[in-house]
Design goal:
It is built from four helices and seven strands, in the order βαβαββαβββα. The protein is an alpha+beta fold. The chain has one domain: Multidrug-efflux Transporter 1 Regulator Bmrr, Chain A (Alpha-Beta Barrel). The model has no long low-confidence stretch (mean pLDDT 88).
C-alpha cells in the first residue's frame, strides 16, 4: 500500500476533514507520479494496539498499489492471510461497526494479527442533500486459535 501520515486524527473530526485528508493523499500520489486510478479505493489504517483497546486514533491514509508499478521506497507492505471483514454504509457508523467486528473476532476464537483497515469501496456524492454516501470495508488480519491461545 501507499501510506501517508496526515498528522490529523480523523476520528476527532467530521466528513469535511476526512475529505481534506483524502485530498492530501491524492496530492501525495500526484507528487510521486503515481497513477490516479489507485485513488478510487482510499482508506485509513489504525494500529493493532489502538484497535484492540478501541482507542479510535489514526492519522494514516492509504491506497493499495501494484508493486510492479510503484517503487519499493513508496510501498508499505500489507500482510497477506486471513482477514475478518464487515461492511458499513455510513461514514459516521464506522466506530460502531469496528466494535462489532472486534466482538465477532472474539466470538470466533480468533486473534487480531495486525492493523485495522477501513477502505472506501464506493463513494457517491448525493447532490440533493450535499452529503456523500460511502460504502466501507472494515477489515483486520486474524489468526484462528483456541481460546487459550487467544488470551496469550
Amino acid at each position: 500500500m501507499y501510506l501517508m501520515d496526515t498528522k490529523v486524527n480523523f476520528y476527532d473530526h467530521d466528513l469535511d476533514t476526512y475529505e481534506s485528508i483524502l485530498r492530501q493523499l491524492q496530492g501525495g500520489l500526484l507528487k510521486n507520479k503515481l497513477p490516479q486510478i489507485y485513488f478510487c479505493n482510499a482508506g485509513t489504517r489504525m494500529t493493532r494496539q489502538n484497535y484492540l483497546s478501541q482507542t479510535f486514533y489514526s492519522t494514516e491514509a492509504f491506497v493499495f498499489v501494484d508493486r510492479e508499478f510503484v517503487s519499493d521506497d513508496l510501498i508499505t507492505p500489507c500482510p497477506g492471510g486471513n482477514y475478518a471483514c464487515i461492511y458499513c454504509d455510513d461514514f459516521y457508523k464506522e466506530k460502531e461497526y469496528a466494535k462489532k467486528l472486534l466482538h465477532y473476532i472474539e466470538e470466533q476464537n480468533c486473534r487480531v494479527a495486525g492493523d485495522y483497515l477501513c477502505e472506501v469501496i464506493s463513494d457517491l456524492p448525493l447532490l440533493f442533500c450535499g452529503e456523500r454516501k460511502m460504502f466501507l470495508r472494515l477489515q483486520v488480519p486474524v489468526v484462528f486459535c483456541t481460546k487459550k491461545d487467544r488470551d496469550l
